[in-house]
Design brief:
Structural class: alpha+beta
Number of strands: 29
Largest sheet: 8 strands, mixed
Number of domains: 3
Number of helices: 19
Helix content: 25-40%
Bound molecules: pteridine-2,4(1H,3H)-dione, dioxothiomolybdenum(VI) ion
Distance between the termini: 55 Å
Length: about 750
């Protein structure tokens, strides 16, 4: 079953924000941003810009009608800078003109004087200066301090990972229309209709009902459109004040420089094992480079915190986190949401321990996998634990030991090239860690011709959530998929929607849609029961036909719907779903933050060119746990896409900042995996017979969990590098060909 938008995408007929053009009097906004990482604004003069050709207005913070604030977790981020700037790209003014080019030209006429202050770009340095968003968090599980004496092997080290750019095809943007009576309608490229509506209403100083957000689809998001409402808020503000439609769409360079990235982390770890290779204790400190403002950094860090032990059973753990404020772009959500950084830390520790013990890391990984009923450090026990099932399934298909043996033999025989191999287990908790966000609404209409319209809070961003929701609705009602239209995501139809995030889009909104359909089905059955004078329980609807007492009748779906209408039946239904059982106590760092976990195991093999330091990813073989898949083609696509995104993060996607925090990376220097970079062999298998009782249709969330597989690429390359020499410290991630080259050649 193909993604319903696919044909339109290919023909170029799908509509994204910047495709909406034929609106009378549309104006274009361009943002004037800070050229320095940190400073005090001494003078700002926009007069010349205001008088430039085609310019309708130049807005500064003084023009903001409501609150000049977009921080939604910590109120620390002005929409437009007042007296200080805190990163290169911090918005200072908005120029609105009749064309984008005129706005660009006027931008150059803005005069500014800034007194530069000493910026911080390193999270450890920020930590030292007390520049923290909130006090550090600490989770203690077991008796970590007491068991170090009992450990046979102890390794310590630092793992450092870099930023990542989302590189969605559609850049950030919004188009706002003034509607009568002070209302604005905002078409936004946003994962968070409810959140953006809230922020924009505050910025405009109006009640939320005067802001309508409407979202057709996004050209990719990956978390990058989950939190920061800057662009939508600016377009809404300009539209409201000028009473004209205003579009603010970033070009690629602006998008890379000014929008949130995946957080760079520095992590200090200590791992202790007994004589059998069982992990006894783990201690880790995660320094998050949060950037200049809080954005959604704290939930990201909380997810890192909760995934510190990844897929492993660790009886004693001490986990610490610090959200460090620096002067780089405020970082935010990115598929995986803090988990990859935590996984990188513990896998680095395991890799190091394996080196000390002269083993392949997979021996330690396998020995320490989490099992059924083992507790995570936050108290929740692994339930329906598929960690070992995934490992064994992969092993039965690819014989992990043989593959490692083959690599060893290859490396004994070859000097110019070396192979490397890594196993990457996956264990990913599904649910928003802010428990209350695990809620969703759906509104379903049945029209008198039997066609249906489904609205939910889910945002389609290419992941196919609309198709999954349509499938769920069609199955619940036993009607043809073609009868169902999934509508735009609109705040007037579904209110207070959580962002489509945390991999929960289909879980939450699919369940709400199912519940609404189930209620409608009940009403229709009541009508049928009256026609045939039987009890409602005797009625069944199968493939658009009514069965009464097990017998087929001549009442079709269309006939039934029509009859129901004339019987004055309500053919619209709203339903609400909130994930049950969740609770988490942040004082004790204890509870059940997740509805369930998704598991997987992968095997990644690479070949390293020992002369050039370049490498090739030869193969990725993996087993991943999607429960009962709602749509296998979509799930396979999500798994492949997520894996490739993490292959990029681990290897070639290198965001470079100078020591002041200036981003040196732009469009021409940021390399994402292309088709040639992809592994020649890429085998994706679903874990079989693994229904999940905790989500709709026994499925499992698939958006983020499989991303973790790709982190194994770093360790596969490192495995090859250690076949060249063993006297070097682990390089930071991404392990670019440059770093591999230096690893091979650099004198100690
Ligand atoms: N967003 C969020 C997320 O607000 N909370 C989460 O726990 C989360 N997890 C993954 C991705 N986005
Ligand atoms: Mo969020 S990283 O969009 O799930």
């Amino acid at each position: 079953m193909k993604n319903s938008d696919m044909l339109m995408h290919i023909k170029g007929k799908s509509v994204f924000i910047d495709d909406i053009r034929d609106i009378a009097n549309i104006h274009h906004g361009v943002i004037f941003t800070s050229p320095v990482p940190k400073g005090i604004i001494k003078k700002l003069d926009v007069k010349k810009a205001e008088q430039a050709d085609g310019v309708a207005a130049v807005f500064t913070y003084k023009d903001v009608p409501g609150e000049n604030q977009i921080g939604h977790i910590i109120q620390d981020q002005p929409l437009l800078a007042e007296d200080s700037v805190n990163f290169v790209g911090d918005p200072i003014a908005l120029v609105v003109a009749e064309t984008r080019r005129q706005a660009d030209n006027a931008l150059k006429l803005i005069e500014i004087e800034i007194e530069e202050l000493e910026p911080v770009s390193d999270p450890r340095e920020a930590y030292g200066k007390g520049e923290l968003l909130v006090p550090p968090r600490l989770m203690c599980f077991g008796e970590t301090d007491e068991v170090w004496d009992k450990c046979e092997t102890i390794v310590e080290g630092t793992a450092e990972s870099g930023a990542q750019e989302h590189f969605y095809l559609e850049t950030q943007g919004a188009l706002s229309l003034p509607i009568e009576d002070g209302k604005v309608k905002v078409f936004a490229s946003s994962q968070a209709p409810g959140g953006f509506q809230h922020t924009i209403a505050e910025v405009l100083g109006v009640p939320m009902h005067l802001v309508e957000i409407d979202i057709k689809r996004l050209g990719g998001a990956f978390g990058g459109k989950e939190s920061c409402a800057t662009w939508a808020a600016l377009s809404a503000m300009a539209a409201k004040i000028l009473d004209v439609p205003v579009k603010v769409v970033l070009n690629r360079k602006e998008d890379i420089q000014n929008s949130p990235k995946r957080h760079p982390y520095i992590t200090d770890y200590k791992l202790g094992l007994d004589s059998e290779g069982k992990i006894l204790a783990y201690e880790v400190m995660l320094y998050q480079n949060s950037g200049a403002y809080a954005d959604i950094s704290l939930p990201v860090l909380e997810r890192s915190f909760l995934h510190a032990v990844s897929s492993y059973k660790i009886p004693n753990a001490k986990i610490r986190t610090a959200a460090c404020r620096t002067n780089i772009v405020p970082n935010g959500a990115f598929r995986g949401f803090g988990v990859p950084q935590s996984v990188f830390a513990i896998e680095s520790a395991i890799f190091k321990a394996a080196e000390v013990l002269g083993l392949h890391p997979s021996e330690l990984q396998k020995k320490n996998l989490i099992h059924e009923a083992d507790p995570f450090p936050y108290g929740m026990a692994a339930e329906n634990c598929n960690a070992e099932k995934c490992w064994n399934s992969l092993d039965s298909k690819y014989n992990i030991e043989n593959r490692i043996e083959y690599v060893k033999e290859y490396n004994e025989k070859n000097v110019l090239t070396k192979k490397g191999i890594a196993v990457q287990p996956v264990c990913f908790g599904v649910s928003f860690t802010q428990t209350a966000l695990n809620q969703a609404g759906a509104l379903v209409h049945i029209y008198t011709d039997g066609s249906l319209s489904v609205s939910t809070g889910a945002v389609e961003m290419g992941q196919g959530v609309n198709l999954k929701i349509a499938q769920i609705a069609a199955e619940e009602l036993s009607v043809d998929l073609k009868r169902i239209k999934v509508e735009t995501t609109n705040t007037t139809r579904v209110a207070n929607a959580s962002p489509t995030a945390a991999s929960t889009g289909a879980d939450l909104n699919g369940m709400a849609a199912k519940m609404a359909c189930s209620e409608l089905l009940k009403r229709l059955k009541k009508v049928a029961a009256e026609i045939f004078s039987v009890k409602r329980e005797k009625i069944e609807i199968r493939d658009e036909t009514v069965y009464a007492g097990g017998r087929e009748t001549d009442i079709t779906w269309e006939k039934l719907v029509n009859t129901a209408y004339w019987e004055k039946t309500d053919l619209s239904c709203h339903a609400f779903y909130a994930t049950p059982l969740l609770k988490f106590d942040r004082d004790k760092e204890w509870g059940r933050p997740f509805a369930y976990h998704a598991y997987g195991t992968s095997l990644i093999e690479v070949t390293l060119d020992c002369i050039k330091g370049t490498y090739k990813i030869d193969s990725v073989d993996l087993v991943h746990d999607v429960g009962n898949s709602i749509n296998e083609e979509l799930d396979e696509g999500q798994i492949e896409g997520a894996v490739v995104q993490a292959l990029g993060w681990s290897t070639i996607e290198n965001m470079v900042f100078d020591e002041k925090g200036n981003m040196l990376t732009s469009t021409n220097s940021y390399k994402v995996p292309d088709i040639k970079f992809l592994p020649e062999k890429f085998n994706v298998h679903f874990l079989e017979n693994a229904p999940n009782p905790y989500a709709v249709s026994n499925s499992k969330a698939v958006g983020e969990p499989p991303l973790i597989h790709g982190c194994g690429a770093y360790f596969a390359i490192l495995n090859a590098l250690t076949a060249v020499r063993k006297d070097k410290e682990m390089p930071s991630l991404p392990l670019t060909p440059e770093k591999a080259f230096m690893y091979i050649y650099e004198k100690e």
